Amino acid sequence: MRQAFFNRLKGELSAQQLTAYAALLVVVLLVAYPMVYLIEVALRVSAPNEPARYGLDNFSLVFSPRNIDTILNTIQLAVISTAIAIPCGFLAAWIIYRTDIPGKRFFERLFVLPYYVTPLVPALAWLALAAPQSGLINQIATRLGHDGPLVNISSLTGIAIVMAFTGGAVAFAIMGAAMQLLNPALEECSQVFGASKRQTLWRVTIPLMRPALLSATIFVFAEGLGAFAEPLILGATDNIQTISTRIYILAGSYPPAYGEAAALGISLLFIIVPLMFVYFRLLKNRDFATVTGKAYRMASIETGRSRAGLFTLVLVYGFVAVILPVLMLVINSFQRLSTIYFSTKVWTLDNYVQVFKSADHWNSIVNSLILGVTTATTGLLLMGFVVWVIYRSPLPPRVGRFIEYVVMVPVAIPRLVFAFGLLWAWLQFPGKMYGTLWLLWLAYLTVFLPLGVRTIASVVFQLDKSLEEAAKVTGASRFYHLRTITVPLLKPGLIAAWILLFIVSVRELGSSILLIGPNSKVISPSIVEAYQVIGREQAATLAVIQLAVLLLALMVMLRFTRRETF
Amino acid sequence: MRAETLMGYELMATAKSAAGTENDYIVEVTDLVIKYGSYTAVKGVSFKIRRGEFLTLLGPSGCGKTTILRSIAGLERPSSGEIKIDGAVVYSSAQGIDIPAEKRDMSMVFQSYAIWPHLTTFENAVYGLRVRKRPKEEVRRQGDWALGLVRMDQYAERRASALSGGQQQRVALARAVAFSPKVILFDEPLSNLDANLRVQMRSEIKELQTRLGVTSIYVTHDQEEALTMSDRIIVMSEGRVQQESTPEELYNFPGNSFVASFIGSANLIEGQVEETARSGQHVDFVTKQGTRIRALDNRPAGSTGEALLALRGVYPQLEAGHGAKEGANRWACEVTEAIFSGDFIEYVIAAPWGSVVVRRPPTDRYPVNSPITMSVDPAHCVVIVR
Questions:
Q1: Please, what are the domains in chain A?
Q2: Model confidence over A365-394: pLDDT tens digits?
Q3: Which residues in B lie closer than 8 A to residue A188 (C-beta atoms)?
């Protein structure tokens, strides 16, 4: 009797462990398989169809003048865009979460918007606004008698500024979240002790925000190193290339220079991986006791006379970073020829008619939606399972921590580099994966692993363990309490996570562009293609359609959650 | 205490001795009303605090006491009324004055301690001096002195986030006194500590306050804290002042049923006052069941009709058996329940008008269901308004 009980217990435990190890295997395969092939192709010195020979030749190609120039461009862009994005993001977060300006909720949502749309949107819009010759701003300046272009968005600084709009949204969200977790008593105390608002900001708020500032900086900088959409669209005129665009070009050239592309990608990892290591250390040891996980009420510092100034500041920022680009794209999509003065002759609905007439465009929209739904659904299941394995499974904690790290690996790898590894891996593989939606699905599942796992984990953490324990104590079976307690309590959070995965799948460019085939086009690469082949107006139209889908999804998501997770 | 150890507090001690001057009150709150939307948290509260006094705002959570404290600090803006600190108006709805918190020259001990985790113990303690740009030498001296007061000097260079709850509270205390503020505000500072530490810190705060003679306003929901530490207590409920007096008076002569039941444990007996037997404050109280109790009338002058009699459980005397004589405030009763609580035994006594809870030391043992005689001094039977 007693023996039987122990046997059953043992059996159940090993079954649980088995499933946990299965999840571990899936995750490791997803992440490691493309990485192994990325390294393989970087070391391969023979042509793709010849027997493999290995060497370091490809790495010596990294030091060609063209590639050195590319690497320097990449680093400069990342540095400049981070230097702009971090102060903007911090200031915006401080004004929104700490002062008494009106319309906080509106600005909060407006500022994170660039994160949820493709960087293609600001890139295309700013091209229309500030391209050296044809940009609207420069045209107006020339008419007013200005000699030569007033602003040049195709310059290194110009590209960096457009990158900073997206980076600023990420910085705003990371620091905003930290600011909401800051105990307002720490600032109030400083005030009671006689510190002016400025003294409190410098002596208390900024030092306390240091971990968040640092992690936002690293995150934005790493994203900047992997930047693809902005340099692809804006850098074409002045031939400014970054590592990501260079890999894209090398992989698409004839014959494809896969080895050189992979070696470049790996050289990028030498910069990003140490940074990411610091980033995760920061996330782990927050020795500041301020982050208690408890969201405090929004304390508002009375800003008095400077209130109008601060309000104007966020209004201008919101307009330049979010509203103006979107507005410009919408206008472009209704024009025959973009950014000529707005005379009535140029207005047309043709662009939309063209999109729906074109089988290619129509397919890319449908494919994106199919992929979005599939990735979100399967991703939620897989990532939910991974979260359970990491935080609640009976595996030894060492194994849990290992999976946690494996899951976070894709953060450190620019998505285009990762997709490149995957491309090579499946080109090697017998069968017809390449050129199908399956390959894209696999890529999305892997690159969104960190985002999905962290989002679902934060949803699960919000659930007090005692709520589940209470159900167990009252005698509910595992399935019963899962059905009646856990799932209903987690539902809003899980729905929001599903929509988040849907959004990032539909907007994804970097990991899509190398993996699409003639019959597996998706919308973001199609926007790039439309821009390169047909024209800005078609690209703008496709971008507006994508934007509409994303905004709709975002609105639904915001109904379920108020906190953004990164 | 030697003068030099008093530091900035010498002046205050002198000022305290010069009582009765115009400037005797350091904080004056007049007709304070605080609204949140349609909800009124504080409904017209006025009080004054003398220099060096330890005043406690006591009440259940949600009574508005913390809101008042935060308004005095300048962290919350009242809807109307006036607040004066040291004779100067810092808030007045009529005059449109609202001096920001940093210019009010106060200090505060927060419920969550609010110890800055990025600073060391010493840096925390001297924050008030540093923002006032005091000379380095003074910062050093005052910081050492303040940390010495709370026996935290050996932790001066330690990161404040590495301290325990009790240590953090001590640092918060040192920080509050280090720059010689006009008033120290305490917002439930002990509620996050465990029971033993709370008792210890209670006496430490009180001792420090007495030594420095610094005016203190203390907010708590813990009646024991209020009774042991305060010079004066203001009992609040639902945004209004219920009673304002010294701890002893509050305990012995509660003004109404709320105070009687919130502070200590009182038996409340329903009935009426018979005016015919009045001699001064002494009256006859007749319970609903017709029992006559000689009592002290603590109602406002001219009160009539239904009243309550408050009888603290510690005052009735018990004798085993039914004695021969039944006199004034002496009744034949029966023990119905005995609950052992460690420091005392709580007896539930069936009196002629109903049950009465009486606390006796554990040495006084009476069997359950045994006859007993209960007597009580009329001075401890207090008639209050219903």
A1: 13-565 (1.10.3720.10)
A2: 999 999 999 999 999 999 988 888 887 766
A3: 73, 75, 101, 110, 114
B267 compared with A399, residue with greater pLDDT: B267
- B-chain CB neighbours of A288 within 8 Å are 117-118, 161
* Confidence band for A288, pLDDT divided at 50, 70 and 90: very low
Q: CA B221 from chain center: how many Å?
A: 8
Q: What's the rounded Cα separation, in Å, for the pair A493 and A501?
A: 12
Q: What is the pLDDT of residue A136?
A: 84
A303, closest residue in chain B (CA to CA): B100
A106/chain B closest Cα distance in angstroms: 22
Contacts A194 to B, Cβ<8 Å: 102-103, 105, 128, 131-132, 179
3-state secondary structure string across A44-81: ECCCCCCCCCECCHHHHHCCCHHHHHHHHHHHHHHHHH
Binary contact (B179, A192; C-beta < 8 A): no
d(CA A71, CA A92): 31
Is residue B235 a contact partner of residue B58, using CB atoms and an 8 Å limit? yes
pLDDT in tens, B102-155: 889 899 999 888 888 888 999 999 999 998 889 999 999 999 999 998 889 899
Residue B296 CA to residue B281 CA, distance in Å, equals 6
Closest-CA distance, B75 to chain A, in angstroms, reads 7
> Does B110 contact A290 at a Cβ distance shorter than 8 Å?
no
**Residue A310, min C-alpha distance to chain B (Å):** 19
B279-284: long-range contacts, CB 8 A cutoff, minimum separation 24: B282/B378, B283/B383
Spell B75-108 as b/e; 16+ CB within 10 A means b: bbebeebbbbbbeebbbbbeeeebbebbebbbbb
Q: How far apart are CA A365 and CA A355, in angstroms?
A: 10
Is the pLDDT at A502 greater than 90? The verdict is yes
Contact: B110, A185; criterion CB under 8 Å: yes
Whether residue A98 contacts residue A300, with contact meaning beta carbons closer than 8 Å, is answered with: yes
Find the residue in A nearest to B164 (Cα).
A289
Would an 8 Å CB–CB cutoff place B179 in contact with chain A? yes
Please indicate whether, in this complex, the C-beta atoms of B161 and A183 are within 8 angstroms of each other: no
Per-residue pLDDT tens over the stretch A297-338: 555 677 777 888 899 999 999 999 999 999 989 988 888 776
- Average pLDDT of chain A to the nearest whole number: 84
Q: In what order do the strands lie in the sheet with B317-320?
A: B317-320, B371-375, B330-340, B345-351, B354-360
Evaluate the omega torsion of the peptide bond into residue B189 and state whether it is cis, within 30 degrees of 0: no
Q: 3-state class of B231 per DSSP?
A: coil
Chain A residues whose CB is inside 8 A of the B142 CB are none
CB B30 within 8 A of CB B81: yes
Question: Which residues from chain B sit within 8 angstroms of residue A207, using beta carbons?
Answer: 116, 118-119
Higher pLDDT, residue A11 or B181: B181
Write the residue in B104, B110, B117 that is nearest to A189 by C-beta.
Answer: B110
pTM: 0.79
CA-nearest of A215, A227, A184, A189 to A90 is A215
B297 Cα to chain A: minimum distance (Å): 45
What does the alpha-carbon distance between residue A161 and residue A151 come to, in Å, rounded to a whole number? 12
- pLDDT value for B261: 87
pLDDT, chain B, mean: 88
Q: In the predicted model, is pLDDT for residue A234 greater than 80?
A: yes
| pLDDT grade for A47, boundaries at 50, 70 and 90 | confident
Asked whether the beta carbons of residue A191 and residue B111 sit closer than 8 angstroms, the reply is no
